[in-house]
Amino acid sequence: MNKLMTVCASALLVASCGGGSSSNDNGNSGGDGGFGAQCSVNDQKQRFLDYMRDDYFWVEDIPSNVNLASYADIYAVLEGIRSSDDRFSFVLTEQEYQDRYVNAQYAGFGFSARVVNNSRVFVNYTFDDSPAANAGISRADEITAIDGVSVATLLANGTYNDALGGPEVGIARELTWRKPSGDEFTDVLTKVEVETNTVLARDVLTVDNKQVGYYVLNSFINRTGNDLNSAYNQFTGVDELVIDVRYNGGGLTRYANQAGAQAAGNNVIGETFVRYLFNSQNQNQNNTELFQLYDGVRQLNLDRVYVLTTAASCSSSELIINSLKPFVDVVVIGSRTCGKPVGQIPEQICDKRTFVVNFETVNANNEGRYFDGLPVNCAATDTLVGDWGDPADPLLATASFHISNGACPANLASSQQAQAQEQALEARGPRIIDQWRQEF
């Protein structure tokens, strides 16, 4: 723990949601034997409990007497002793950690989907150069059948996930999908190691003779710094910027810092990005991180930034908003964010990586504690209408209206009602692993 804490705290490479570690992490931090190291279940449970009693943010809520024998494994220990305020802590295997955070890949077709009315499945996004993207599947398409069996039947039988097959390279399935236009396609897709690009789309839009940079940021992992550069390199001379984090469950805070620093540039660089506040036993770990470019190159020096959100916008996504607010105008559009003003430093315990909450975050004005989420300026519902950048997309259309008129659309009341309905259906406090479970 001490080695990992020293590395993370000195470089400020902490994880605000779903974790992460330094960009040169080789899986050997923490002194627990390195990648793949094994120890007994009882040893894992004891190490984990000792770690929690030292570094857990809500350490006061851990029961004074914990009977480890009553818990089957480290996962059960976490569920048994976590604070009632903790919706965010989790445990990965070291292999899961390496695959998703370090190597940024998984075995699959390369799309994320949502189930609607327990009978239909729509695509939220695809990853670049994945089997799904190469077949022509894109955002807002409806998956209607798998191997000739209708999705409605698979959902009714509870066999939809099974029909798509496990996370193994080489698994092939015949998928049928329908475009928003009504055109229908069928193709056989084979699972490969999908590279999870974190910027899903980037474009320069024209809104009332203004040039508007727009990009979709889906997560904050090791490759995000370069992905951000690929977006900002296209935004020379833009008048406005829209950052879309509607599905972004969080990750490495340094890339939230980079995204904000590249957007606001000289308005923020060198100012306080975030203050990290640890539990009562670790006040000596409290520190301040300044806005800086990290892997970034181009900066826009904008006085105003638009951010598109839903209840799935979590942690590092929320940091972009909260950290920029003291210095520039931040216009938040969509629905209230998930509410995670706390973060994790991943700790290796044998062949596991624990992501338990270690600290809370506040901005330059000491504003934090937004456990109910960050509010929006203009409410809009995430309705699938077409691919990224479609002008009819409710969140993007609302941003465009505000850019043109300096105010929210007149139908704000109905949008707020729709927002309330949307949030009632969504599980609050999504975590990165919940997001991953929707990726196939």
How would you describe this structure in keywords?
440 residues, alpha+beta, 27% helix, six-stranded mixed sheet, globular, six-stranded antiparallel sheet
Show the helix and strand layout.
Blueprint: H1 2-11, H2 41-55, H3 74-81, E1 90-93, H4 94-102, E2 105-108, E3 111-116, E4 120-126, H5 131-135, E5 142-146, E6 149-150, H6 151-157, H7 160-164, E7 172-178, E8 184-190, E9 192-195, E10 199-207, E11 210-217, H8 224-232, E12 240-244, H9 253-264, E13 272-278, E14 287-290, E15 304-309, H10 316-324, E16 329-334, E17 342-344, E18 347-349, E19 352-355, E20 357-362, E21 378-379, H11 394-405, H12 412-425, H13 432-436
Parallel strand pairs: 11-12, 12-15, 15-16, 16-21
Antiparallel strand pairs: 1-19, 2-9, 3-4, 4-5, 5-6, 5-7, 7-8, 10-11, 13-14, 13-20, 17-20, 18-19
Helix pairs in contact: 8-9, 9-10
Write a short abstract of this structure:
The protein has 440 residues and is α+β, with helices and mostly antiparallel strands.
Describe the structure.
The protein has 440 residues and is an alpha+beta fold. It is 27% helix and 25% strand. It has 13 helices and 21 strands. The protein has helices spanning 2-11, 41-55, 74-81, 94-102, 131-135, 151-157, 160-164, 224-232, 253-264, 316-324, 394-405, 412-425, 432-436, and strands spanning 90-93, 105-108, 111-116, 120-126, 142-146, 149-150, 172-178, 184-190, 192-195, 199-207, 210-217, 240-244, 272-278, 287-290, 304-309, 329-334, 342-344, 347-349, 352-355, 357-362, 378-379. The strands form five sheets. Strands 3, 4, 5, 6, 7 and 8 form a six-stranded antiparallel β-sheet that branches. Strands 10-11-12-15-16-21 form a six-stranded mixed β-sheet, sandwiched between helices. Strands 14-13-20-17 form a four-stranded antiparallel β-sheet. The longest helix is centred in the first third of the chain and has 15 residues, at 41-55. It is globular. The two termini are 34 Å apart. Mean pLDDT is 88; it is low at 1-36 and 423-430.
